C-alpha cells in the first residue's frame, strides 16, 4: 500500500511545478521558453496520470500516457527544427 503522505507530497510538488510552468508559458520571453514550459507541463500531466495508476493499481490510463509521450516528443522535435531553420542565416551561393 502506498503511503498517503507520499501521495500528498507528490500532488503538492506537481501543483507547484504546474504553476511555475503555466507562469513561464504566460510570461516566457521567447518561443522556445514557451515550448519548453509546455513540454514540462505535459510531463507533469503524464506523471500525475502515472501516480494515479500506481495509487489505484490499474492500467486504464496507459494508452493515454503513451500517446501523450509520443505527441510531446514529436511536438518538441518539430518546434526545435522550426526554430533551427529560422536561425540559420541565408547563404549567398554565388
UniProtKB/TrEMBL annotation:
Keyword Secreted: no
Coiled coil stretches, renumbered: none
InterPro entries membership: MrpF/PhaF-like (IPR007208)
Pfam families recorded: MrpF_PhaF
Bilayer-spanning residue ranges: 35-55, 62-83
Intracellular or extracellular location(s): Cell membrane
Main location (coarse class): membrane
GO CC field: plasma membrane
UniProt keywords, alphabetically: Cell membrane, Membrane, Transmembrane, Transmembrane helix, Transport
Keyword match Cell inner membrane: no
Family: Belongs to the CPA3 antiporters (TC 2.A.63) subunit F family.
PANTHER family: NA(+)/H(+) ANTIPORTER SUBUNIT F1, NA(+)_H(+) ANTIPORTER SUBUNIT F
Protein name from the UniProt record: Multisubunit sodium/proton antiporter, MrpF subunit
Amino acid at each position: 500500500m502506498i503511503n498517503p503522505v507520499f501521495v500528498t507530497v507528490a500532488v503538492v510538488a506537481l501543483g507547484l511545478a504546474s504553476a511555475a510552468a503555466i507562469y513561464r508559458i504566460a510570461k516566457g520571453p521567447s518561443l522556445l521558453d514557451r515550448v519548453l514550459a509546455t513540454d514540462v507541463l505535459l510531463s507533469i500531466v503524464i506523471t500525475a496520470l502515472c501516480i494515479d495508476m500506481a495509487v489505484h493499481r490499474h492500467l486504464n490510463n496507459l494508452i493515454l500516457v503513451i500517446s501523450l509521450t509520443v505527441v510531446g516528443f514529436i511536438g518538441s522535435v518539430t518546434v526545435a527544427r522550426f526554430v533551427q531553420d529560422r536561425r540559420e542565416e541565408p547563404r549567398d551561393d554565388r
